[in-house]
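Q: How would the structure tokens look for this protein?
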Amino acid sequence: MDVVMANTARGMRKCTLVFPLDKVLAAAEHAAAADTHKLGYGETEPRPRLWWVKDDGTYLMSNGQDPTDTRDDNGRLPHVVYADGWGPGTDARSVLGGDDFRESIDLTTPDDDGLTLLGRLRAAAAQGATRFLLKAAFNEKYMHLSYITE
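A: Here is the predicted structure in token form.
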């Protein structure tokens, strides 16, 4: 399993979740192409995002809405990508703590280098990368997310 968990002196917890890049890119493209977008907690401006969710397993999903979004035979929405080893029926509390949550990951706002996450995902896939790694450092009050592809 590619999940690494460690405690530090400041009470911080860290984990790295691994996702298949092709499926993450498909969810991101879905969000980018959607005409309307769901809002997350505290959000006021609808725009393309991936949501990182922890409930039954942990996964990334598109916040894009379209009339064709139907649930599969298990009642799950399309454009959902589970972390390796953390699919439906797994309990991610051992890595991420007790409460369910949803964190928004913006796809279209340029970073300091002028690149968007969507652009980085496209470039990584074009260069042969196969994995998207979501790294989280968190405690009871705050969370810092970072991402890499390989």
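Residues 20 and 113 are 25 Å apart (CA to CA).

The first strand starts at residue 6 and ends at 7.

Upvote if useful.
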